[in-house]
Each structure stands twice: as C-alpha cells, then as structure tokens.
Amino acid sequence: MHSPLRLLLIGSTPQLASFAQRHCRPGPTASAALAATLAGAEAMLCGDEHYDAIVLDAAGVVVAAAEVEAIAARAALVVVVVEPDAEHTLGWLRSGAEDVLGPDELLGAAGWRRLRFAVERRRRGEGRQPAYATDPGTGLPHRRQLVEHLSQLLALRERDPSPMAVLALRIELPADAAAEAEPLCRKIAVRLRAGVRASDVVAAIDGENFAVLLGTLLTSADAARVAEKVGAAIAAPIQVGGREHAVSVALGIAYFPQDGNQAERLLRRALALAAVAPALTHAGPAAIQDPAGDLRIAANDEA
Questions:
Q1: Average pLDDT per 10 consecutive residues for the chain, totaling 303 residues
Q2: What is the pLDDT of residue 1?
Q3: Residue 280 in 3-state DSSP?
Q4: Architecture of the CATH domain 133-300
Q5: Sequence-distant (≥ 6) Cβ neighbours of residue 173 within 8 angstroms
C-alpha cells in the first residue's frame, strides 16, 4: 500500500480546487496545502513541512524560469498548462518539472496516477544522489548542497527579498585534542543542529568550518541573536573520551539582500568574516561582539 502523499497546490483556478476536493482530503491517500500565490507558496516551502509533490497551475500563477527551478528542487513538480504543446512541455521539463498536464488531464482518470508516478521518479532520482552529498565525519550536508539550497531560496526571493542570512563558524580545537578532532566535530555538529530550527540548513564546509543558512528571518537583527546563542553553545566545554575540551569559535554573518544576491558570494563573505574574527571561548561570538560586549553587525562592516 502506498504511503499518503503530502502535496502543495499553487494557484487558484477552479480545476485546482476540484482536484483538491477529489484527492486531497486528509486520509490514507493524500493531504494538501493550498497557496493562491507564489509568495504564499514560498512561505510554506521555507517552513518545516515536507512535501512529496507540488502542483503548479501555470494558468493562474506567472513564474520565471529560475523560480520554476527553485520550486522543482524542493519536491516533484507537476505543472498544469492550458493546451500544452510539445515545445512548451519540453521547456517546463528542462526547468525541472516531472510532468506537464492539461487541466482535463489533471482531473481525468489518469491524473492522480501520473502525479504518483512523478513522485516515484523523484524519489528514485534522489536515491541515486552521489555519496558526497553528506560529510562522512559529521553527517551534515557539504558546501555544494548548502550553495544549491541557498540558490533555490534566492530565486524564490526575487520578487519579495525578505531577509535571510548565512552564518559561518570557524572552530579552533585545543592543541592537545588532535586525536579527538573527529568526535569533537561530530558533537559540534549536534550542538549546531540543536541550536537552530529544523528549517535552517547546517553544513560542514571544510576542516573545522561550518555554516548555517537562516532562511526565514523577521529582521536582519535576528541573525545576530541566533549567532550569539549558537556561539555560546559551541564554546561550552565538550566531553570526549573522558576529558573535557574547550573549543574556540569565531563567527561571521552575511545578509541577504544587503551583502549580495548570489549564493557563493554570501557564503564567501560570511567565511571571510569568520576567518578574521578573533576566536573566543566562553565569551560569545567574536564576529558580532566588540570588546565592550556591544553587538555589532559583522556582515555590514564595509558600509
């Protein structure tokens, strides 16, 4: 028996509403969330909810190619187009859609089956992801995965540039802890994940460098508060092999949109700030705190 699908329906046409009423009532088959606009869909995609498939009604929602790619990266994308011809269908598929249907096809006998097949194709593709998708030492995503995820969010924010931030952490291990470097990094990764929301992305960059993508912020100042909390958690003593180790941490923050709108640029800026910030133990994140203890915005130091 198939497991229930969780769907996100984007659009407001009668056909989409009819599809939701027919197939997406909470139960053994599927449940669905409905977003009438692209901005509403983006807010849902940035939350903690997981979606198996996204149904985009292109008749009622205008999207750019980059936005289509960003949506398709999050779940199996099925696009509903009035009278889809071969050329336009190929364009949607090249942008990442799993299938393209006409409104009648969506509501017809084969519509649900094609949606289920799209989800299965997506799952099979994800199952063939290369082994380097995660860092073997910490289990965290690598730099490439972080950049891809950030690029997707940036594409979705083209119309509504609500604040995001990239938080970089440079960890300095004690000189006598070389033999415990791997378990120390694993414990640091656990503390990082515990200190942020499930929707935030924590990644291992290289060596003892980590990064956190804060994808949803009310204001830019929220990133500094998260950095202070995370920095204090990382700097607290860590027990490994029966010994207590005190690691040092320095942080850098790059803000969207103030510091750029390219994923690599934002990550490089945050890493550069962390690289030059003095690493402190038990004293909070150096990249956002001056010697007097006053908070400052590290990622805006070029202003």
A1: 81 88 72 88 77 91 80 88 84 88 88 90 70 76 90 84 93 82 91 92 90 91 92 90 88 93 92 86 46 36 32
A2: 47
A3: strand
A4: 2-Layer Sandwich (3.30)
A5: 181, 184, 208, 245, 247
- Amino acid identity of residue 113, one-letter, is R
Residues 175, 147: Cα–Cα separation, whole Å? 31
* Secondary-structure breakdown of the chain: helix, strand, coil percentages, each rounded to the nearest 5: 45, 20, 35
Neighbours of 211 (CB within 10 A): 27
Among 245, 238, 226, 235, CA closest to 283:
235
CATH code at 5-128? 3.40.50.2300
Residue 278 DSSP symbol: P
User: Dihedral, CA atoms, 293, 294, 300, 303, nearest 10 degrees?
Assistant: -120
Whole-number pLDDT of residue 266? 94
Residues 6+ apart with CB under 8 A from 274: 168, 169, 170, 209, 250, 251, 252, 287
CA distance 91 to 294: 52
Domain spans of the chain, in order of start:
5-128, 133-300
pLDDT for res 31: 85
272 and 252 Cβ atoms separated by less than 8 Å: yes
Which residues, in sequence order, are bridge partners of residue 248? Answer: 172
Task: With CA atoms as reference, report the closest residue to 26 among 50, 46, 4.
Answer: 4
**Do the strands 99-101 and 76-80 form a parallel or antiparallel pair, or are they unpaired?**
parallel
At residue 48, the pLDDT reads 67
| Residue 296, number of CB atoms within 10 A of its CB | 12
Q: What is the pLDDT of residue 128?
A: 55
Number of other CB atoms surrounding residue 300 within 10 Å? 13
